[in-house]
């Protein structure tokens, strides 16, 4: 057998072994671990604040809207020139304004536009503060106490310079639950 033939045979063996490991064994192991009892106890993300968890009712802070259909994640490819998109944003703006008892022009942009994944747990400080009166009233807490929770759950800029500070809604609602 020639040197080329030996190298080709060795390459084929490596290809088959790696295909077996990465294409069969690893996915099977991940699937098996995901089926362990206790990992599917409920649909809510537990022990993490990396995913937005929406809770129903006036006593909770609301995350950004999602363009995803749960349990999948995904954004929308509709933009500002799309009439359907503009209608959805206008409907959301009216809904948030009515729920929070403010004029539509006071509703922050992140309250009406979805994040790219639909699972982002962060909202702007403006959107969090807009929700304070409703959440405080529903929980029998002072607005100052609720504002203090917002400060506690605000994450700074990425690497100290990237983006704007954001309020983690999942962490905020858990802190709110403890404060009740």
Automatic annotation (TrEMBL):
Source organism superkingdom: Bacteria
Keyword annotations: ATP-binding, Cell membrane, Ion transport, Membrane, Nucleotide-binding, Potassium, Potassium transport, Transmembrane, Transmembrane helix, Transport
Functional note: Part of the high-affinity ATP-driven potassium transport (or Kdp) system, which catalyzes the hydrolysis of ATP coupled with the electrogenic transport of potassium into the cytoplasm. This subunit acts as a catalytic chaperone that increases the ATP-binding affinity of the ATP-hydrolyzing subunit KdpB by the formation of a transient KdpB/KdpC/ATP ternary complex.
Subunit structure: The system is composed of three essential subunits: KdpA, KdpB and KdpC.
HAMAP family, alphabetized: KdpC
Gene from which this protein is expressed: kdpC
Protein name in the entry: Potassium-transporting ATPase KdpC subunit
UniProt-listed PANTHER family: POTASSIUM-TRANSPORTING ATPASE C CHAIN, POTASSIUM-TRANSPORTING ATPASE KDPC SUBUNIT
Main localization (coarse): membrane
Membrane topology summary: Single-pass membrane protein
Subcellular compartments: Cell membrane
Family under the similarity heading: Belongs to the KdpC family.
Source species of the chain: Actinokineospora diospyrosa
């Amino acid at each position: 057998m020639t040197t080329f033939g030996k190298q080709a045979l060795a390459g084929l063996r490596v290809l088959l072994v790696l295909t077996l490991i990465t294409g069969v064994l690893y996915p099977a192991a991940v699937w098996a671990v995901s089926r362990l009892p206790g990992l599917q106890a409920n649909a809510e993300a537990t022990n993490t604040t990396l995913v937005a968890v929406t809770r129903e009712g006036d006593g909770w802070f609301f995350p950004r809207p999602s363009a995803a259909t749960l349990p999948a994640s995904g954004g929308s490819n509709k933009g500002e020139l799309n009439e359907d998109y503009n209608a959805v944003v206008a409907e959301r703006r009216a809904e948030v304004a009515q729920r929070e008892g403010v004029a539509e022009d006071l509703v922050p942009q992140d309250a009406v536009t979805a994040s790219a994944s639909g699972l982002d747990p962060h909202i702007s400080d403006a959107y969090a503060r807009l929700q304070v009166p409703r959440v405080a009233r529903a929980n029998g807490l002072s607005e100052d106490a609720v504002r203090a929770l917002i400060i506690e759950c605000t994450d700074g800029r990425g690497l100290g310079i990237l983006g704007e500070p954001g309020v983690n809604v999942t962490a905020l609602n858990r802190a709110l639950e403890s404060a009740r």
